[in-house]
Specification:
It holds the Pfam family CxxCxxCC. With about 240 residues, this protein is of the alpha+beta class. Helices cover about 40% and strands about 20% of the residues. It contains 6 helices and 11 strands. Helix 1 packs antiparallel against helix 5 and helix 2 packs across helix 5.
Length: about 240
Protein backbone atom coordinates (compact mmCIF):
# COMPACT_ATOMS: atom_id res chain seq x y z
CA UNK A 1 0.00 0.00 0.00
CA UNK A 2 2.95 2.35 0.47
CA UNK A 3 4.07 2.44 -3.16
CA UNK A 4 2.70 5.58 -4.82
CA UNK A 5 4.23 6.45 -8.17
CA UNK A 6 2.81 9.96 -8.38
CA UNK A 7 1.03 12.17 -5.93
CA UNK A 8 0.37 15.32 -7.99
CA UNK A 9 -3.39 15.46 -8.53
CA UNK A 10 -3.25 17.58 -11.67
CA UNK A 11 -0.65 15.31 -13.26
CA UNK A 12 -2.60 12.14 -12.50
CA UNK A 13 -5.83 13.73 -13.72
CA UNK A 14 -4.19 14.75 -16.99
CA UNK A 15 -2.72 11.25 -17.40
CA UNK A 16 -6.14 9.64 -16.87
CA UNK A 17 -7.77 11.94 -19.41
CA UNK A 18 -5.02 11.19 -21.92
CA UNK A 19 -5.41 7.45 -21.30
CA UNK A 20 -9.17 7.66 -21.85
CA UNK A 21 -8.67 9.50 -25.12
CA UNK A 22 -6.24 6.79 -26.19
CA UNK A 23 -8.66 3.99 -25.35
CA UNK A 24 -11.45 5.72 -27.26
CA UNK A 25 -9.22 6.10 -30.33
CA UNK A 26 -7.73 2.59 -30.28
CA UNK A 27 -8.79 0.93 -33.56
CA UNK A 28 -11.53 -1.67 -33.19
CA UNK A 29 -10.17 -3.91 -35.99
CA UNK A 30 -6.73 -4.04 -34.33
CA UNK A 31 -8.18 -5.01 -30.94
CA UNK A 32 -10.49 -7.62 -32.45
CA UNK A 33 -7.59 -9.03 -34.47
CA UNK A 34 -5.43 -9.43 -31.35
CA UNK A 35 -8.24 -11.23 -29.51
CA UNK A 36 -8.76 -13.58 -32.44
CA UNK A 37 -5.04 -14.26 -32.81
CA UNK A 38 -4.63 -15.09 -29.11
CA UNK A 39 -7.65 -17.40 -29.10
CA UNK A 40 -7.84 -17.50 -25.31
CA UNK A 41 -10.12 -20.05 -23.65
CA UNK A 42 -10.77 -20.26 -19.90
CA UNK A 43 -9.99 -23.68 -18.37
CA UNK A 44 -11.73 -22.99 -15.04
CA UNK A 45 -8.52 -23.12 -13.01
CA UNK A 46 -9.75 -20.22 -10.80
CA UNK A 47 -6.21 -18.87 -10.47
CA UNK A 48 -7.46 -15.42 -11.46
CA UNK A 49 -9.71 -15.49 -8.37
CA UNK A 50 -6.80 -15.55 -5.92
CA UNK A 51 -4.63 -12.79 -4.47
CA UNK A 52 -1.53 -14.73 -5.53
CA UNK A 53 -2.46 -14.22 -9.19
CA UNK A 54 -4.49 -10.99 -9.04
CA UNK A 55 -3.91 -8.38 -6.38
CA UNK A 56 -7.53 -7.33 -5.89
CA UNK A 57 -10.91 -7.05 -7.63
CA UNK A 58 -11.63 -3.35 -8.13
CA UNK A 59 -15.32 -2.46 -8.16
CA UNK A 60 -16.87 0.11 -10.43
CA UNK A 61 -19.76 2.03 -8.90
CA UNK A 62 -22.25 -0.22 -10.71
CA UNK A 63 -20.50 -3.31 -9.31
CA UNK A 64 -20.51 -1.96 -5.77
CA UNK A 65 -24.29 -1.49 -5.87
CA UNK A 66 -24.72 -5.17 -6.83
CA UNK A 67 -22.31 -6.50 -4.20
CA UNK A 68 -23.91 -4.43 -1.47
CA UNK A 69 -27.25 -6.02 -2.31
CA UNK A 70 -25.66 -9.45 -1.88
CA UNK A 71 -23.65 -8.66 1.26
CA UNK A 72 -22.45 -5.14 2.16
CA UNK A 73 -19.77 -6.58 4.46
CA UNK A 74 -17.95 -8.16 1.52
CA UNK A 75 -16.33 -4.92 0.33
CA UNK A 76 -13.37 -2.93 1.60
CA UNK A 77 -11.51 0.16 0.37
CA UNK A 78 -9.36 -0.74 -2.61
CA UNK A 79 -5.65 -1.01 -1.68
CA UNK A 80 -2.96 1.43 -2.78
CA UNK A 81 -4.66 4.59 -1.55
CA UNK A 82 -3.85 7.44 -3.88
CA UNK A 83 -3.57 10.30 -1.39
CA UNK A 84 -3.18 11.16 2.31
CA UNK A 85 -3.81 14.66 3.63
CA UNK A 86 -1.86 16.43 6.38
CA UNK A 87 -4.38 15.20 8.96
CA UNK A 88 -3.57 11.56 8.18
CA UNK A 89 -6.77 10.80 6.26
CA UNK A 90 -6.50 8.62 3.16
CA UNK A 91 -8.35 8.89 -0.15
CA UNK A 92 -8.98 6.03 -2.57
CA UNK A 93 -10.78 5.75 -5.90
CA UNK A 94 -13.18 2.94 -5.01
CA UNK A 95 -13.88 -0.32 -3.25
CA UNK A 96 -12.61 -3.86 -3.78
CA UNK A 97 -13.92 -7.30 -2.92
CA UNK A 98 -12.69 -8.77 0.33
CA UNK A 99 -10.67 -11.97 0.24
CA UNK A 100 -10.58 -15.02 2.45
CA UNK A 101 -7.59 -15.70 4.76
CA UNK A 102 -6.04 -17.89 2.04
CA UNK A 103 -6.16 -15.00 -0.42
CA UNK A 104 -8.99 -16.31 -2.57
CA UNK A 105 -12.04 -14.25 -3.50
CA UNK A 106 -14.78 -14.08 -0.89
CA UNK A 107 -17.18 -15.53 -3.47
CA UNK A 108 -14.95 -18.42 -4.60
CA UNK A 109 -16.04 -21.90 -3.52
CA UNK A 110 -14.62 -25.15 -4.89
CA UNK A 111 -13.01 -23.18 -7.73
CA UNK A 112 -16.36 -21.75 -8.80
CA UNK A 113 -17.84 -18.28 -8.40
CA UNK A 114 -20.95 -18.22 -6.25
CA UNK A 115 -22.24 -15.06 -7.95
CA UNK A 116 -21.13 -15.81 -11.50
CA UNK A 117 -24.20 -14.26 -13.13
CA UNK A 118 -23.70 -11.09 -11.06
CA UNK A 119 -19.90 -11.02 -10.97
CA UNK A 120 -18.09 -7.65 -11.17
CA UNK A 121 -17.22 -6.02 -14.48
CA UNK A 122 -13.50 -6.77 -14.28
CA UNK A 123 -14.26 -10.45 -13.75
CA UNK A 124 -16.41 -10.46 -16.89
CA UNK A 125 -13.68 -9.13 -19.16
CA UNK A 126 -10.61 -10.72 -17.54
CA UNK A 127 -8.00 -11.53 -18.82
CA UNK A 128 -8.62 -8.96 -21.54
CA UNK A 129 -7.55 -5.35 -21.09
CA UNK A 130 -6.95 -2.26 -23.17
CA UNK A 131 -4.57 0.11 -21.47
CA UNK A 132 -0.97 1.23 -21.45
CA UNK A 133 1.25 -0.74 -19.12
CA UNK A 134 4.97 -1.29 -18.63
CA UNK A 135 6.42 -4.68 -19.53
CA UNK A 136 9.25 -6.44 -17.66
CA UNK A 137 11.80 -4.18 -19.35
CA UNK A 138 9.90 -1.04 -18.39
CA UNK A 139 8.62 -0.26 -21.88
CA UNK A 140 5.16 1.29 -21.73
CA UNK A 141 2.83 0.22 -24.52
CA UNK A 142 -0.71 -0.99 -25.10
CA UNK A 143 -1.53 -4.31 -23.44
CA UNK A 144 -4.53 -6.43 -24.40
CA UNK A 145 -4.30 -9.49 -22.17
CA UNK A 146 -3.16 -10.23 -18.62
CA UNK A 147 -1.24 -13.27 -17.41
CA UNK A 148 -0.20 -14.39 -20.87
CA UNK A 149 0.66 -18.11 -20.87
CA UNK A 150 0.00 -18.37 -17.13
CA UNK A 151 -3.56 -19.67 -17.27
CA UNK A 152 -6.12 -20.94 -19.75
CA UNK A 153 -5.40 -22.18 -23.26
CA UNK A 154 -4.50 -20.22 -26.37
CA UNK A 155 -4.85 -20.30 -30.15
CA UNK A 156 -8.40 -21.65 -30.05
CA UNK A 157 -10.74 -20.87 -32.92
CA UNK A 158 -12.95 -17.91 -31.98
CA UNK A 159 -15.84 -16.64 -34.07
CA UNK A 160 -15.56 -13.07 -35.32
CA UNK A 161 -18.76 -12.15 -33.47
CA UNK A 162 -17.30 -13.48 -30.20
CA UNK A 163 -14.11 -11.47 -30.64
CA UNK A 164 -16.11 -8.34 -31.43
CA UNK A 165 -18.27 -8.81 -28.31
CA UNK A 166 -15.15 -9.27 -26.14
CA UNK A 167 -13.62 -6.12 -27.60
CA UNK A 168 -16.77 -4.08 -26.97
CA UNK A 169 -17.14 -5.24 -23.37
CA UNK A 170 -13.46 -4.76 -22.57
CA UNK A 171 -13.40 -1.28 -24.06
CA UNK A 172 -16.55 -0.37 -22.12
CA UNK A 173 -14.95 -1.52 -18.87
CA UNK A 174 -11.71 0.37 -19.46
CA UNK A 175 -13.60 3.56 -20.34
CA UNK A 176 -15.85 3.24 -17.27
CA UNK A 177 -12.83 2.63 -15.04
CA UNK A 178 -10.99 5.68 -16.38
CA UNK A 179 -14.07 7.88 -16.03
CA UNK A 180 -14.34 6.77 -12.41
CA UNK A 181 -10.67 7.64 -11.88
CA UNK A 182 -11.12 11.03 -13.52
CA UNK A 183 -14.12 11.71 -11.30
CA UNK A 184 -12.08 10.69 -8.27
CA UNK A 185 -9.16 12.99 -9.09
CA UNK A 186 -11.54 15.88 -9.76
CA UNK A 187 -13.34 15.26 -6.45
CA UNK A 188 -10.07 15.10 -4.49
CA UNK A 189 -8.82 18.26 -6.16
CA UNK A 190 -12.02 20.13 -5.27
CA UNK A 191 -12.09 18.75 -1.72
CA UNK A 192 -8.46 19.66 -1.08
CA UNK A 193 -8.82 23.18 -2.46
CA UNK A 194 -12.03 23.83 -0.52
CA UNK A 195 -10.60 22.62 2.80
CA UNK A 196 -6.99 23.76 2.57
CA UNK A 197 -5.65 20.21 2.32
CA UNK A 198 -2.72 18.68 0.47
CA UNK A 199 -1.15 15.28 -0.04
CA UNK A 200 1.79 14.64 2.32
CA UNK A 201 3.86 11.59 1.44
CA UNK A 202 5.73 11.46 4.75
CA UNK A 203 2.46 11.24 6.68
CA UNK A 204 1.21 8.63 4.20
CA UNK A 205 4.27 6.47 4.83
CA UNK A 206 4.26 6.89 8.61
CA UNK A 207 0.56 6.11 8.99
CA UNK A 208 0.89 3.05 6.79
CA UNK A 209 3.80 1.72 8.82
CA UNK A 210 1.79 2.17 12.02
CA UNK A 211 -1.23 0.49 10.48
CA UNK A 212 0.71 -2.49 9.18
CA UNK A 213 2.18 -2.95 12.67
CA UNK A 214 -1.35 -2.96 14.11
CA UNK A 215 -0.87 0.30 16.01
CA UNK A 216 -3.73 2.33 14.51
CA UNK A 217 -6.86 2.37 12.40
CA UNK A 218 -7.01 4.21 9.10
CA UNK A 219 -9.64 6.78 8.24
CA UNK A 220 -10.24 6.23 4.54
CA UNK A 221 -12.42 8.35 2.28
CA UNK A 222 -13.66 6.13 -0.54
CA UNK A 223 -14.89 7.66 -3.79
CA UNK A 224 -18.41 6.60 -4.77
CA UNK A 225 -20.92 8.28 -7.08
CA UNK A 226 -19.16 11.61 -7.16
CA UNK A 227 -18.53 11.93 -3.42
CA UNK A 228 -16.71 10.27 -0.54
CA UNK A 229 -17.78 7.68 2.01
CA UNK A 230 -15.81 7.47 5.25
CA UNK A 231 -14.55 3.99 6.15
CA UNK A 232 -12.64 3.21 9.34
CA UNK A 233 -10.26 0.40 8.48
CA UNK A 234 -9.05 -1.76 11.35
CA UNK A 235 -5.58 -3.32 11.19
CA UNK A 236 -5.12 -7.04 10.77
CA UNK A 237 -3.69 -8.15 14.09
CA UNK A 238 -3.79 -11.92 13.42
Amino acid sequence: MINVKKNNIETRLADAREELAGVEKFPDPEFVGIIKELGFRCELCARCCTREFNDHVFLLDVDLAVIRQINPDFVTPAPYYEFCDQRGRFYVSGYALKTKPDGSCIFLENKRCKIYDRRPSICRVYPYMLHREADDSGKVDWRQISGLNEHGSYYSELEDSECEAIARETRAYEEAYLRQMIGFFEAVETHFQKNGLRHVQSIYDRRMREFLKGKCELEVFVYYKGGFEKYNLKPNTD
